[in-house]
Amino acid sequence: MPIENSSADVVIIGGGPGGYVAAIRAAQLGLVTVCVEMDKTLGGTCVNVGCIPSKALLTSSEHYEFARQHAAEHGIRIEDKGLTLDLATMLKRKDDVVAQNTRGIEFLFKKNKIMWAKGKGSLRRTEKGLEVAVAPSAPASGGAPPQDSIASYAAKNVIIATGSVPIELPFLKFDEERILSNVGALTIPRVPRHLIVIGGGVIGLELGSVWRRLGANVTIVELMPTILPGMDDDVIKECDRVFRRQGLDLRTGTRVVGGRREGDRLLVDVEKDGAKETLEGDYVLIAIGRKPSLGGIDAASLGIDVGRRGEILVDDRMRTGAPNVYAIGDCVPGPMLAHKAEEEGVVAAESIAGQNVHMHYKSIPNVVYTWPEIAAVGLTEREVKQDGREYRVGRFPFSANGRARTMGETAGFVKFIADARTDELLGAHLVGPNVSELVSEVVLGFEYRASADDLGMTVHAHPTLAESTKEAALATLGRALHI
Fold first, then answer.
1. What's the pLDDT at 212?
2. Of 74, 460, 462, 482, catalytic
3. Cα separation, 447 vs 363, whole angstroms
4. Which residue has the higher pLDDT, 288 or 3?
């Protein structure tokens, strides 16, 4: 029998970006809120083994590469003992940054009087309504926790925020020692001699860049004809050129047909245009995507509809087909992005509170934190062309931007796509320094259905990288000033 029976206005299963933000917003709205999370810390994949630790390593490795390759250009000479890499300290700093973030979420839970139910949540519908049982995670030695340690919560509403898990290959199953998911790739104890990355998307390029900067040979194998499938063609072309110049070995249009571990050797069989080859490395990172995780959720018995990938189907208020059950984040359709999950969490909480809110995805930015960075919002030029719309394109290179020149970071560009008749912005694609920050201005423009002329007439401080967005907007009108 459960030792605790409580009730709540909303129980959220999952404490990642979507779940913890939903919990905070629900509590702000006066709802009695419980958030169920089975990991030892809040924050989910993003904070613990995804966005935050990878960005910490990306930043540290960028500093290292700057010191090794570019400091002398700025009159900074590293002499005496020369430049050395202390990987253990770098990894510890990454862990410290993660801890700061997880402690921050715990503080927000206490501040907003949110109960954190620690354990694995399962949902069922009883004669009295929705019930979430929370069982502590199994002990490290294995086995199930004792039944008398299970808590139960009667929930007026439930938000499912169970996230996603990495996809593995049947012949290269994760051991997190040599065959790595994103989790293991964050804790490699020594710089690999040769890291083989399977997947040329966001995770593969970001983590591949980290270890390349630190001295590893990195080969990225991508099944599709290009890296970054789905991005704008001009972005793909520019990034392919820059990444190859940096030293990444990009094998596009290449299929992985087999693989095996032999001690500390990883052998990966690949095929391109009928020619077969075996790549040998000491580590392999599998970065072929993620799939929704519905742990503890029996969708069929609850009357919850799921798609072909196992994702929970929802409407624009994040409601599932089951009454009073909502779902958000990686376990629902759409791009698996932390900021998307957060916004969905806000919409779900406000919908439960009776507010007239709806989720829309037109203005969700996508960012890749390589260097140069990549950011996009809206449609690609290919998609606009397929729609048959008349459009104009404006581009402005960072090589013509004064601030970029002072930084020595002139690769990349800002590209806008605007409707030829109304001048409304349809797509924006940025490659260059700090574009993860620059894109927010563009997203705001999208939210207010801004035209290229609106951004072009906005005064930007000089000298700033953001002047490139103004110039690209003016370029769609044939009025760029500095090219």
1. 98
2. 462
3. 6
4. 288
φ and ψ at 99, to 5 degrees?
A: -60, -40
- Would you list the DSSP string of 40-104? SSSSHHHHHHSHHHHHHHHHHHHHHHIIIIIGGGGT----TT-----HHHHHHHHHHHHHHHHHH
DSSP labels, 150-196: -EEEEEEEEEE---EEE--BTTB---SSSEE-TTGGG--SS--SEEE
**Nearest-5° angle of CA 165, CA 193, CA 97?**
50
Phi, psi of 92 (to 5 degrees): -65, -40
Q: Which residue has the tokens 């799921």?
A: 306
Place of tokens 């007439």: 457
CA 66 – CA 82 distance, rounded (Å) = 14
If you search the block for the tokens 């140069």, which residue do you land on?
372
Q: What is the mean pLDDT of the chain?
A: 95
Contacts of residue 398, defined as CB under 8 A and 6 or more positions apart, other chains included, come to 404, 409, 410, 411, 412, 413, 414, 432, 433, 465, 468
pLDDT at residue 3 in the model: 46
pTM, two decimals, is: 0.95
Digit-coded pLDDT (tens) for 113-160: 999 999 999 999 999 999 999 998 765 555 555 555 689 999 999 999
Tokens encoding 153: 């919560």
426 three-state secondary structure: strand
Both structure tokens of 224 = 């599709």
Dihedral Cα 431, 437, 438, 439, nearest 10 deg: 80
DSSP state letters, 327-370: E-GGGSSS---HHHHHHHHHHHHHHHTT-------TT--EEE-S
CA distance 156 to 10: 6
Tell me how many degrees the CA angle 367-373-374 measures, rounded to the nearest 5: 45
CB 274 within 8 Å of CB 287: no
Judged against a pLDDT cut of 80, whether residue 80 lies above it is answered with no
Q: How far is the C-alpha of 203 from the C-alpha of 286, rounded, in Å?
A: 9
Residue 22 tokens, joined: 């939903």
Q: What's the confidence (pLDDT) of residue 304?
A: 97
CA–CA distance, 18 with 180 (Å, rounded to integer): 25
* CA–CA separation, 397 and 430 (whole Å): 10
Contact 238, 90 (CB under 8 A): no
Assess whether 74 carries a catalytic annotation.
no
**Do the Cβ atoms of 152 and 133 come closer than 8 Å?**
yes
Residue with tokens 């390349």: 212
* Strand 275-281 versus strand 265-272 pairing type: antiparallel
